[in-house]
Amino acid sequence: MQHYPSQLLERAVEEFAKLPGIGTKTAMRLVLHLLRQDVKAVEAFGNSVIRLRQEVKFCRICHNISDTETCDICANPRRDHSVICVVENIQDVMAIENTQQYRGTYHILGGVISPMDGIGPSDLQIQSLVERVREGEVAEVILALSPTMEGDTTNFYIYRKLAESGVKVSVIARGVAQNDELQYTDEVTLGRSIVNRTLFNINM
Amino acid sequence: MQHYPSQLLERAVEEFAKLPGIGTKTAMRLVLHLLRQDVKAVEAFGNSVIRLRQEVKFCRICHNISDTETCDICANPRRDHSVICVVENIQDVMAIENTQQYRGTYHILGGVISPMDGIGPSDLQIQSLVERVREGEVAEVILALSPTMEGDTTNFYIYRKLAESGVKVSVIARGVAQNDELQYTDEVTLGRSIVNRTLFNINM
Asked: Which of A63, B16, B192, B199 has its Cα between 20 and 30 A from that of A45?
């Protein structure tokens, strides 16, 4: 057992050590760093997470994190509301937004189906996606989940759920990534990239 | 520039990313973890660091972190107040306390002399150590600084400052560490460990 010179210090270190990937030594280092900052800076740090947790909302349409009932993307009339891109989490939305290649809307599942982790379809926002497609004027659903067994399982599950609606369902392209070296690309990816080859285009 | 779906989220991520060794991606991961916890748990997290920064004290004698004006060690009559162990920081005190081999008191310098980092003697708690030795009934000062050039420089500086007081000044033993393999031990350490060999003792 560690001997802490201060209970306040001990409590702060314990709180940091609860975070994923942060051990006691790292927690101590972070807390001692904060101790060297201005009181105002530490209050800003602590209050930023408290306020986030207390005040943040989840968009009633796409379930993305939002400061308002409807997120900026769902509320934006200049986005194409006839296209829904289905992703696992918030980081995926941010990554796709950063590409500036997509002008439609999103639907955040909150994960993928993973029996090993005890995550079934009812733990995800799949039913609300089906309802969105049923109610709204949706022309296409783009599945942008991880290219893993769990992602593929979830893709298939959603595909079947949406089948009766008659909506167009697409999947993001899989193939060799930009700057990948072919000799180090796995066989499945390389094989598929040949089967699913596209016509050469000078603007590619 | 990242597109954040929420300003509250962005602010919390920015605050975490200010911590040493925490990049934006890790900050995002930590913040999203907190977002999944109870409001009460997140309030406990945030308030623990705010309270620490607002309320923590530094011991008026040894400068260790403390919940009171005088730390638990300096206030403990069963500790040997005639011995002062000089260390760089709070973690060093905790490490030595964990050995349960030391019953004296401490003096936390707050670092070592390092011209490269712009840290001179006046940035450290050296003058207060000299005064402690001058005023109190101190029999021995143990220098327990890092075995580096900066640590050695600081040792020498303190040694000269304490010379006129006539107090006994010692340095913690240097040599091969427990379970070190000799063939991988650096030459300086190995050479010194032979020169400074001690008589064999069955209780070692």
From this structure: A63
Q: What is the mean predicted confidence (pLDDT) over B77-92?
A: 94
Distance (Å) from the C-alpha of residue B49 to the closest C-alpha of chain A? 5
Mutate which of A2, A4, A6 to test chain B, going by most B C-beta atoms within 10 A?
A6
Distance from CA of A99 to the nearest CA of B (A): 10
Residue-by-residue DSSP string for B120-135: -GGGTTTHHHHHHHHH
Three-state DSSP class for residue A62 = coil
Residue among B58, B49, B56, B65 nearest B97 (CA): B65
Kindly report, residue by residue over B13-63, the tens digit of the pLDDT.
999 999 999 999 999 999 999 998 999 999 999 999 999 999 999 999 999
Which of these, A125, A134, A198, A127, lies nearest to A166 by C-alpha position? A134
Q: Is B182 exposed, middle or buried (0-12, 13-18, 19+ CB in 10 A)?
A: exposed
Q: How far is B130 from chain A (nearest CA, A)?
A: 23
Asked if B108 contacts B136 with a C-beta cutoff of 8 angstroms, the reply is no
Residue A147: both structure tokens together: 């290219």
Tell me the domains of chain A and their CATH numbers.
7-55 (1.10.8.420), 65-171 (3.40.1360.10)
All residues of chain A having their beta carbon less than 8 Å from the beta carbon of residue B22 are 30
The interface predicted TM-score (ipTM) is: 0.80
CB contacts of A42 in chain B (<8 Å) are: 49-50, 52-54
Number of CB pairs < 8 Å for A and B? 172
Q: What is the mean pLDDT of chain A?
A: 91
- C-alpha Rg value of chain B to the nearest Å: 22
Residues of B in contact with A46 (CB under 8 A): 45-50
Residues of chain A found within 8 Å of residue B48, distances taken between Cβ atoms: 8, 11-12, 14-15, 46
Residue A109 CB coordination number (10 Å): 23
Q: Which letter, b or e, does each residue of B15-33 get, where b requires 16 or more Cβ atoms within 10 Å of its Cβ?
A: bbbebeebeeebbbbbbbe
What pLDDT, on a 0 to 100 scale, did the predictor assign at position A204?
A: 55
Strand, coil or helix: B96: helix
